[in-house]
Amino acid sequence: QLQLVESGGGLVQPGGSLRLSCTTSGFILGEYAIGWFRQVPGKEREGISCISSRGGLTIYTDSVKGRFTISRDNAKNTVYLQMNSLKPEDTAVYYCAAGKIVTHRASAYDYWGQGTQVTVSS
Description:
It contains no helices and eleven strands. It is mostly beta strands and about 120 residues long.
């Protein structure tokens, strides 16, 4: 059964850090690009970062550049999102997704996790 499971979310103060993990099973992670998305109620799902299947290409949306870092360990079937200097506006449900191309476009992804809540608040 194909699965993506996000973990590592929680409550953090502004300026703090979190590392999200996306653990996969049921497919060969090394054949897929993985994207991280976030969504707040009433807004569209926003693509924030993506990494190519072997990690050679990464992209970030402008609002997280210099603060977030995506990485992957295909041997561990896991993709990470290191989030530093967190801001209240980073509060959202964060999702990972698997697809065949590196893009922020949600419709391009085939498989999705259930999401993990990140709340940045003092």
